[in-house]
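Deliverable D2.4 — example input (structure tokens):
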């Protein structure tokens, strides 16, 4: 090694090299500033040393050629250190930027997740009580998480029965209300007027129900029924229902007086016990079942317009809060007469006689304009204020940006519970295994930079053996994503070899050099062995610190990406769950209008169809089968069988051939469905006829399903089906519990086809029979029958056996 007179130029190299490495790796400078400072640092060393030697003269035995070589060697060391530092800084800034973007994306995902969860809760709670919706939500999430079909089949095998979400409640009051004269009024309405009218009326009733602590159960056409005492028991449940009935009558009275339209309210109330919950797999609707519910229904049909009709059981709970008079319900309803139920009519303290007005406007127009003044909330109004956000909006928000920056910076120094403080290994083995198997796309750049360093070592190795070791230590720092254990091992091996060279292999050389230095001046700088060890140790611990921090940052980034992925999967799960929930309330083509980026829920949804095939299928024998005793848990086990029947019916809707069939709702043991709602309102006659044939096939499939249930449950249930086709109006009504429904003469006649039909048969109208015969079905004429509200109609029975023989039936 060459020796310089006075203080050695080479002994200053480690200090300047350390400054350069520190500027790039430890100080928070931008790249341009870091490059500028590093250049200033090593140029100042080269220039000052050159000037000093030029002015002061060359030391003895040294030529300008020797000095030039040494200065060039110093420059190579500095350039090499600067290149390593710049490379390290570029990779770290790139990683930090990626972390910032990932953090921003993670925040966006979490915000979206919270919004999805809130929407999910609002959606479920608008249809179902909380205690039921949470159970159903957990069950759906479990099914959604089972991506493997075998796992899903295992879950099905473990459950011999479909899940039943039904609970018994005692001491409740049930109210049934029907709008008298509404059918006649509805026939004069346009689709928009009908949906507005129903939404305003039932929106008002929902408001009254909320004020009187009642829970609306369901809307059946123009029939509205609710219960007080659910889901939390209330001591004044009877008073609540009676008060609500009186308020409903008063509301209709205001409509009648303001518009001159002759409509009224008939209300029936009974107190007792109910089974409440949800049955089936599709189109969930909270419902109640029991003999007391049936009695309340007959109290309405046996009541009087404008009056609240109550049973003696309800009267006992009123504690003389209202005056009553004899109801004589047994004279108007055979069911009440059969059970010998004593009934009463509540006297409304506000009741006054009023005469009808007769304005010149059409009745439906007067009615609609008046009801709109009530301002009922639109269905799914709570979804209209959906929070919108985007990545741009988040980036433009300075507060969020600062939060993200702080999060990224703090993340590097705050201890993570998922990472070991000593080894930096993940506490979860699978996470550690996953981290160690990730690809390193920048590895080729690591090798390139390391090759450059060792090339520099080769250039100057004859001059600086100690600095070669330091450069080798620095070279380890460019391998950002290489295992920390491997880097630590390499650092200690290189350092150990250097110590051996200094103290053993080249001891004579260092001793001679030390003696020559001591002739100039005594001091620590004149002990090259000790100083070389200090330099190597300093850079060893510096690179250990940098490597450890790099490893920690890389693992934190990996952890963040895993959490982002988990959050993304949870968001997707919530989105799928929301879609399933909404499609279980509304048909898929309607649900798309209420959620998503292109939602159009500013107005009420309504649509008029030229031809829709409507089916009612009931199990009349179930009424006799249903009993309430200790053996069947007060009717709960009977409902379990009904749930199996409805669920099996719902499963048929999953078949591709029945994709055009839409379940509307269930009414007790009656199943209502329609075909032709998903397509455009105006369709070709060929497509309309195909939908009618498809509905008959669905009815035949229902009969087959029920036969299968009979074989397994040893019952003799038989299905009674009524089908009709024609124009209908579809819409979504109800503010607190939005409900999709269809209305029109077609629906009413289809219902009558079922109620006047025969067990095990499909009854259709003459018009529907003509279409079916064109499709190849055989129909048997039943003749003229008396249909309530329609007079005498000629009806037909579809010959299901012959349709199967012709190959049209179920495959």
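Example output (designed residues):
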């Amino acid at each position: 090694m060459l020796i310089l007179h006075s203080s050695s130029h080479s002994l200053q190299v480690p200090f300047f090299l350390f400054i350069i490495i520190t500027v790039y790796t430890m100080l928070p400078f931008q790249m341009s500033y870091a490059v500028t400072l590093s250049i200033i640092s090593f140029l100042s060393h080269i220039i000052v040393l050159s000037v000093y030697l030029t002015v002061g003269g060359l030391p003895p035995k040294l030529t300008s050629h020797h000095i030039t070589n040494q200065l060039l060697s110093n420059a190579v060391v500095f350039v090499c250190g600067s290149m390593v530092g710049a490379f390290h800084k570029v990779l770290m800034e790139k990683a930090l930027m990626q972390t910032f973007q990932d953090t921003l994306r993670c925040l966006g995902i979490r915000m979206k997740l919270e919004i999805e969860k809130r929407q999910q809760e609002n959606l479920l709670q608008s249809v179902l009580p909380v205690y039921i919706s949470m159970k159903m939500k957990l069950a759906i999430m479990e099914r959604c998480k089972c991506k493997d079909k075998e796992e899903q089949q295992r879950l099905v095998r473990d459950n011999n029965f479909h899940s039943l979400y039904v609970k018994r409640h005692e001491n409740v009051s049930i109210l049934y209300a029907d709008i008298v004269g509404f059918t006649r009024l509805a026939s004069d309405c346009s689709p928009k007027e009908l949906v507005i009218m129903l939404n305003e009326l039932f929106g008002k009733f929902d408001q009254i129900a909320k004020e009187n602590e009642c829970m609306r159960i369901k809307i059946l056409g123009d029939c509205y029924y609710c219960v007080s005492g659910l889901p939390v028991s209330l001591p004044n449940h009877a008073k609540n229902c009676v008060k609500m009935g009186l308020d409903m009558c008063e509301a209709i009275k205001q409509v009648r007086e303001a518009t001159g339209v002759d409509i009224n309210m008939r209300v029936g109330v009974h107190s007792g016990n109910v089974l409440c919950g949800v049955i089936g797999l599709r189109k969930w609707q909270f419902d109640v079942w029991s003999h007391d519910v049936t009695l309340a229904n007959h109290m309405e049909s046996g009541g009087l317009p404008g009056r609240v009709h109550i049973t003696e059981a309800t009267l006992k709970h009123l504690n003389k809060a209202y005056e009553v008079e004899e109801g004589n319900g047994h004279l108007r309803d055979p069911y009440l007469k059969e059970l010998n139920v004593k009934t009463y009519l509540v006297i409304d303290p506000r009741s006054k006689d009023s005469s009808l007005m007769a304005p010149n406007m059409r009745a439906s127009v007067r009615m609609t304009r008046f009801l709109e003044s009530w301002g009922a909330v639109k269905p799914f109004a709570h979804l209209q204020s959906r929070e919108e956000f985007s990545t741009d909006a988040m980036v433009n928000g300075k507060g969020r940006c600062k939060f993200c920056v702080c999060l990224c910076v703090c993340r590097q120094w705050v201890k993570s519970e998922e990472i070991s403080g000593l080894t930096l290994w993940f506490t979860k083995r699978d996470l550690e295994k996953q981290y160690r198997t990730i690809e390193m796309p920048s590895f080729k750049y690591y090798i390139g930079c390391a090759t450059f360093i060792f090339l520099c070592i080769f250039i100057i190795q004859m001059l600086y053996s100690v600095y070669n070791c330091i450069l080798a230590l620095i070279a380890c720092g460019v391998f950002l994503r290489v295992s920390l254990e491997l880097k630590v091992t390499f650092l200690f091996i290189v350092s150990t070899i250097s110590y051996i060279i200094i103290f053993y292999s080249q001891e004579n050389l260092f001793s001679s050099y030390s003696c020559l230095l001591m002739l100039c001046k005594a001091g620590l700088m004149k002990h090259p062995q000790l100083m070389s060890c200090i330099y190597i140790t300093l850079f060893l611990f510096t690179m250990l610190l940098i490597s450890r921090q790099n490893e920690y940052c890389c693992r934190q980034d990996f952890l963040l990406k895993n959490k982002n992925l988990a959050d993304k999967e949870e968001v997707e799960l919530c989105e799928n769950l929301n879609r399933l929930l909404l499609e279980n309330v509304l048909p898929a083509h309607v649900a798309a209008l209420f959620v998503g980026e292109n939602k159009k829920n500013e107005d009420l949804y309504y649509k008029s169809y030229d031809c829709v095939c409507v089916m009612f299928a009931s199990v009349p024998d179930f009424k006799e089968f249903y009993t309430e005793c200790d053996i069947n848990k007060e009717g709960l086990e009977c409902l379990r069988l009904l749930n199996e029947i409805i669920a099996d019916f719902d499963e048929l809707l999953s078949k591709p051939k029945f994709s055009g069939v839409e379940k509307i709702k269930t009414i007790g043991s009656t199943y209502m469905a329609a075909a032709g709602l998903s397509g455009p309102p105006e369709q070709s006659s060929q497509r309309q006829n195909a939908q009618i044939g498809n509905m008959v096939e669905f009815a035949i499939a229902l009969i087959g399903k029920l036969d299968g249930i009979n074989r397994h449950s040893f019952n003799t249930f038989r299905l009674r089906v009524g089908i009709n086709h024609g124009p209908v109006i579809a819409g979504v009504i109800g503010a607190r519990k939005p409900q999709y429904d269809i209305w029109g003469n077609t629906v009413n006649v289809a219902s009558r086809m079922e109620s006047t039909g025969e067990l095990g048969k499909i009854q259709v109208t003459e018009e529907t029979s003509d279409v079916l015969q064109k499709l190849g079905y055989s129909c048997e004429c039943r003749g003229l029958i008396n249909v309530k509200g329609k007079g005498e109609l000629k009806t037909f029975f579809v010959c299901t056996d012959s349709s199967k023989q012709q190959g049209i039936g179920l495959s």
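The mean pLDDT is 77.
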